[in-house]
Fold this protein.
Amino acid sequence: MARQSGSLRTYVLTRLVLVIPMVWILLTMVFVLMRVAPGDPVTASLGGRLSPADLAARREALGLDRPLLVQYVDYLRDVLTFNFGRTITDNRPIREIIVDNGGATLELSIAALIVAVGIGLPFGLIAGRYRDRVVDVVLRLFGIITYAAPVFFVGLLLQLVVSQRLGLLPSSGQASAIVQATVPTKTHILALDALISGDSYALWDVIKHLILPAVTLGLLVCGVFIRLVRVNVAQTLQGDYIEAARARGIGERKVVVQHAFRNALVPVITVMGLQAALLLGGAVLTENTFNWPGLGSQLIAYLNGRDYAAVQGIITVFALAVVVISLLIDFVNALVDPRVRY
């Protein structure tokens, strides 16, 4: 027992040490890419609206008049203190944007992951159980189509069919105007705020607005789970211990669900962390399609306004979120499967 806990402790410490250069590389890439664009960021976003003196003052306030190496060191130091700077266009603290709009992105991402897992796991199990049969071919084709289809196209299609033609669900927004105005903001996650306040009407309204964007984003990821679970279930069903279980008279359903499917879940946990980047990337287009007030829609707005300081801050947050999620998934995976510790 002490040896197992020691190996887990070593694994956790090793992953924590390895994440330091990974974060440094990510932050460096973000910093460099934001400065590769030609021209001055302040002039690009505010040129024509401010006088040359005001532009120079704004550039000085943002530190863009200092040497590039000094800007880089300041950028790393600020990120370590969770200071992501201020926007150029409206001089708003980027940390405030993250707090106000990050909850909506988190709400959408969690709901989309639930949809992806809820569709991907059972479909993958069925496809693996009936490998190379008609149902397997159909489910594999479904997974390929959902993964390859553009997110904005799927979103527009669902809006057209479900909202416009059938009138079943709202087509845009996080909630109705009256709900957003009356629900007290405590966590900046509207569904959780409605639940905390005990307002069932507001909670149902938020859920109705959440379904279409969550399904749109969840379909993007579910194809990965279908393929992964299918392959692992099919391989597990060919194992010797599965044959031994069948020989002992254990029912086929119990063999598939309790033996093959349980072992197939181990790599799925790892892939969940890897799909965090795909979810956040898809959230940008999904939020823009459904007018969802998250960080993705803010990123698009600041990109259109050529506010590179805001874009740098939001992308930095996305990068750090992917690293943290991947790290947490690694820890969970080490607890579930002791083999990864060695």
